[in-house]
Amino acid sequence: MDAAPSPLVVVSNRGPLAFTMQGDRLLTRKAAGGLVSALAPALEGVEATWIAGAITDADRRAAAQGAVDSEAARVRLLTLDEGDYRAYYDIVANSTLWYLYHGLYDRPRRPFIDRRWREAWARYRDVNLRFAEAVVEHSPQDAVVLVQDYHLSLLAPHVTKQRPDLRTVHFHHTPFCGPEDLRMLPDDVAAELVGGLASHGACGFHTRRWADAFSACCEAVLGDVPLTFVAPAAPDLDDVARVAAGTECDGHLADLEARVGDRQLIVRVDRIELSKNLLRGFHAYDELLETRPQWRGRVIFGAFVYPSRETLPDYLGYRAEVEALIARINAKWQTPAWTPIMVEATDNFPASVAALRRYDVLLVNPVRDGLNLVAKEGAAVNERDGVLALSRESGVWDELGPWALELNPFDLTATAEALHTALTMAPEERAERATGLRAAATRRGPSDWLAQQVAAAG
Ligand code: G6P
Q1: Going by DSSP bridges, is the β-strand pair 387-391/48-53 parallel, antiparallel, or unpaired?
Q2: FRET pair for 21, CA 20 to 30 Å: which of 138, 231, 393, 425?
Q3: How far is CA 425 from the centre of its chain?
Q4: 2 assigned to some structural domain
C-alpha cells in the first residue's frame, strides 16, 4: 500500500484481539469497539506491529506466549500490574480525561482532585512509560508510530528521546476540551498532559472543532501550538455489508419485522455510556407519546444498548437508571398489543445491523462524541430511506449534518419534535436526505483514515 512505505507500529490500550479461556484453551476473536473496527481493516496487508495492554486474565495468558499474529498486525500485549492498570484506566483515563473531554463533570462535586487522585496520575504516567518502553523495544528502524487515544497521552517524550529515528503521531478518538475546562486539572498535570500530546510529530482529531480546542489548550498552557490534522474515521463498510447480507442478520430482521409489523421504528445502537445521552433520548420519546397521541401504538423504539465499563460505579448507576426509565415508560404506555420500547441488551452486531437496515428514524443524540460510527453505518446500510436525528455535538455532524435533522441533545422537547418531524417526513424528502447521507457516509474508508495518519508523520 503506497500510503504506508515505512513499517507501522500502532499503540492502543485495547488491541485488535479479544482472548477468552475455554477450560485450558485460549480462544481468540476480533475485539469490539470503534477504534479496532476502523483501524484493523486498514492494516490488512500492511506490515504492522500493534502494541496493546493485556486487559483480562486471558489477555495475560496470551501475553505470556509472546507475539500473536492477527489479520491486521503482529500483536504484542503488555502485561501491567493490575493496580496500576485500574488507576490508569478507571481513574485517570475513564473517570477524569473522558469526563473532561466530553463535558461530563457536575462541577459542584467533581472533579475531586485529592492525594489518591494524584497517586493515580503517577500510575497513569508509569503505565504510559511502560507502553513507551515497549515501543522503543519493538519498533523497527524508522517506523511510523501511531499512538491511539486518551489513554496514552504521555508516552511520546520517552519514545522520541530514546528512538529519534521513529516518527510519532497521536490520534484522539474523543472530543477535546477547551482551555476553560482544562483549568479544572492542576496546572502541573495540565502542562504534562498537553505537553505529552504536543511531543508527537502531529496530533489528529475526527473534526476541526476538537483540533481547535486542543490547539487553544496548547496555546494557553504551553504558549505554542503543535501540528494538528483532521481525519474523520470511517467504518469498515465491506464488513458491515457482509454482515448485512448474512443469514444471521436476516434472521434478526425477520424477528424485528414480526415485532414491528406495520408500525414505524425508531432505533438507537449504543454502549450504555454517559456521553451517549440515553436518558434524555427516552424522555424525549416519552414526551412524544405524551404530546402526540397519534403515535401511541404506532411506533416502536428499538434500543440496542449494551453494558460498558462496568468496573466504574457511575456506569453501573447509569445503567440502572436507563433500565428503570425504560421500564417506567413501558409500564406507562404499553397495551396488550404494544410495548413502546424493545431492548436488545447484548452487543450483538448482526442484530444491530438488522436494526440499522430497518429503522425509519435513527436517534444519535450524544451530549458530545468524538465522531460516532453508528450514524455512518446506519446511513450506509439502511433500506427504508430512514431519517437520521443527529446531535450537533457529535464529531460526525460535520460530515452528515446537512442531511440530518439537527438535535440539541440537552433539549428533550426539541428532540421529541424532531422525532415527530422524522416520523411524518414526506417520502421524497426522506429519499433525498437518505441519498445525501449515504454518499457522505461512504465517501471515505478505513484506508483513507489510516493514510492521513501516516501522512501526518511527515
Ligand atoms: C469508544 C471511544 C474510543 C475509546 C473506546 C474505549 O469507542 O470512542 O475513544 O478508545 O471507547 O473503550 P473501552 O471499552 O476500551 O474503554
Answers
A1: unpaired
A2: 138
A3: 30
A4: no
Which residues fall within 8 angstroms of residue 315, CB to CB, at 6 or more apart?
272, 273, 274, 307, 308, 309
Domain count along the chain: 2
182 and 61 within one domain: yes
Least confident of 42-46, 292-296, 350-354, 396-400: 42-46
Q: What is the pLDDT of residue 4?
A: 45
Q: Which amino acid is at 255?
A: D
Asked whether 183 and 190 are in contact (CB, 8 A), the reply is yes
**DSSP code per residue over 221-254:** HHS----EEE------HHHHHHHHTSHHHHHHHH
Q: pTM for this one?
A: 0.96
Whether 3 maps to a domain, the answer reads no
Structural domain including 198 reads 8-234+447-456
From the CA of 173, give the closest atom in ligand 1: 9
Is a pLDDT exceeding 70 seen at residue 1?
no
Residue of 17, 148, 173 to test ligand 1 pocket, by largest number of atoms within 8 Å of CB: 173
For residue 249, what pLDDT is reported? Answer: 98
Is the CB of 33 within 6 Å of ligand 1? yes
For the CA of 55, the closest atom of ligand 1 is: 15
> What confidence score (pLDDT) does residue 71 get?
79
CA angle 377, 280, 89 (to 5 degrees): 70
Determine the residue of 99, 149, 368 to mutate for testing ligand 1's pocket, defined as the one with the most ligand atoms within 8 A of the Cβ atom.
Answer: 149
Contact 171, 122 (CB under 8 A): no
Task: Give residue 232's identity as a one-letter amino acid code.
Answer: P
206: CATH: 3.40.50.2000
Per-residue model confidence as pLDDT tens digits over 50-61: 999 999 899 999
The SS3 assignment for 19 reads strand
